[in-house]
Amino acid sequence: PAQPRDRLRVAIQKSGRLGEPARELLASCGLTWRESRDKLFCYGESLPVDLLLVRDDDIPGLIADGVCDMGIVGRNVLVEHDLARRAQGRGADLTEWRQLGWGTCRLDVAIDEDQEWTGPEQLAGMRIATSYPHTLGRWLEEHGVDAEPVLLNGSVEIAPRLGQADVVCDLVSTGGTLRANQLKPVTTILHSEAVIAGPGHPLDDGRQEIADLLLRRLDGAVQLKE
Ligand code: PRP
Ligand code: ZN
Ligand code: MG
């Protein structure tokens, strides 16, 4: 059983596209912190809101396990978590509390830039490198395509050159990573943006009150930017 807590713990990405803007957004809500020596934990000074800096892929699990109370993460990561649970016959445990409108990206299938794209059926029998096997699997199923997702947690874009896969299914923001690897996006399987994720149920120990206060400030901060 979790220890009673009277501080809110927010998970954000340690590095990568969403980490810095997430921290700036929270700072614009008037939050200040004292950093731990390894900079992975930030102790909230102005409000009882602490930050945990982690890999984005770990954020849904941390919230689901109650280690963190909310997180700022790409929808792509949440959708994958949700589909993985469903594959185990379990229901959804997290929800999107807010959509933030930045950090937009697409989960795309990309093929060799010299290859022609004729449609999803072209992928039949192929090995597709991805960090999103369940999201890809759902799309393949919807299109009646039998292909083989190859799970890679990083450097997905070099898999075709290494002979690990025939094509990739990866996140595309500017498109620079794909171009640098002589790949081109051919079809989109998910649209994503940064969201605030939290449990599907209210928080205990008075933490919901802190969360509500933070969400009100976040809404104000987001509106100011518009
Ligand atoms: C994604 C993706 C690529 C990169 C693409 O990573 O895995 O590496 O962004 O961006 P580009 O189109 O602008 O080149 P992300 O930042 O989500 O971090 P992660 O893969 O480390 O989780
Ligand atoms: Zn990641
Ligand atoms: Mg990456």
From TrEMBL:
GO aspect biological process, one term: L-histidine biosynthetic process
Cofactor: Mg(2+)
UniProt keyword terms in alphabetical order: Amino-acid biosynthesis, ATP-binding, Cytoplasm, Glycosyltransferase, Histidine biosynthesis, Magnesium, Metal-binding, Nucleotide-binding, Transferase
Name recorded for this polypeptide: ATP phosphoribosyltransferase
Pathway where it operates: Amino-acid biosynthesis; L-histidine biosynthesis; L-histidine from 5-phospho-alpha-D-ribose 1-diphosphate: step 1/9
Origin organism lineage: Bacteria, Bacillati, Actinomycetota, Actinomycetes, Micrococcales
GO-annotated molecular function: ATP binding; ATP phosphoribosyltransferase activity; magnesium ion binding
Record GO cellular component, one term: cytoplasm
Annotated ATP phosphoribosyltransferase catalytic domain residues: 55-214
Catalytic activity, EC: 2.4.2.17
Superkingdom of source: Bacteria
Gene name for this UniProt entry: hisG
Shown residues within the full chain: 4 to 229 of 302
Localization (cell): Cytoplasm
Primary enzyme class: transferase
Regulation of this protein's activity per its record: Feedback inhibited by histidine.
Job of this protein: Catalyzes the condensation of ATP and 5-phosphoribose 1-diphosphate to form N'-(5'-phosphoribosyl)-ATP (PR-ATP). Has a crucial role in the pathway because the rate of histidine biosynthesis seems to be controlled primarily by regulation of HisG enzymatic activity.
Reaction equations catalysed: 1-(5-phospho-beta-D-ribosyl)-ATP + diphosphate = 5-phospho-alpha-D-ribose 1-diphosphate + ATP
Family designation: Belongs to the ATP phosphoribosyltransferase family. Long subfamily.
